[in-house]
């Protein structure tokens, strides 16, 4: 492998689909429905949403594909960057909001320090 994210890797998707054809076809039908079965949200806006989500998930393939589709639908660099900034702000806000869990967890155990955990025990969290 010469380059970790190489656009030509996408040419291998049919190979993946052969490994689980029913699931792959279900996914493709779902994607088709989401992007094409309804015009409640215009196609360009759907692509702007996809660009924003692609940045949150960190998928360079999706960024590339959805930016190009958005541009083909008349999307501008300014619109694309605004969508990315909205995703950035939303992600940061979610992280900040989740920090309340850290405060609560800390306060709940204020009087009881965490006991020493034996090295061979199962972890409470797998992240």
From TrEMBL:
<dbReference type="InterPro" id="IPR004675">
    <property type="entry name" value="AhpD_core"/>
</dbReference>
<feature type="domain" description="Carboxymuconolactone decarboxylase-like">
    <location>
        <begin position="21"/>
        <end position="103"/>
    </location>
</feature>
<protein>
    <submittedName>
        <fullName>Alkyl hydroperoxide reductase AhpD</fullName>
    </submittedName>
</protein>
<dbReference type="Pfam" id="PF02627">
    <property type="entry name" value="CMD"/>
</dbReference>
<dbReference type="InterPro" id="IPR003779">
    <property type="entry name" value="CMD-like"/>
</dbReference>
<dbReference type="InterPro" id="IPR029032">
    <property type="entry name" value="AhpD-like"/>
</dbReference>
């Amino acid at each position: 492998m010469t380059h970790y994210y190489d656009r030509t890797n996408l040419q291998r998707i049919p190979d993946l689909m052969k490994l689980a054809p029913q699931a792959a076809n279900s996914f493709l039908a779902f994607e088709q429905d989401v992007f094409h079965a309804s015009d409640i949200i215009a196609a360009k806006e759907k692509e702007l949403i996809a660009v924003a989500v692609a940045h949150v998930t960190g998928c360079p393939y999706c960024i590339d594909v959805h930016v190009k589709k958005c541009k083909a639908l008349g999307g501008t660099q300014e619109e694309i960057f605004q969508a990315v900034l909205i995703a950035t702000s939303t992600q940061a806000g979610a992280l900040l909001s989740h920090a309340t869990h850290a405060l609560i967890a800390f306060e709940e155990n204020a009087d009881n320090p965490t006991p020493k955990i034996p090295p061979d025990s199962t972890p409470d969290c797998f992240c």
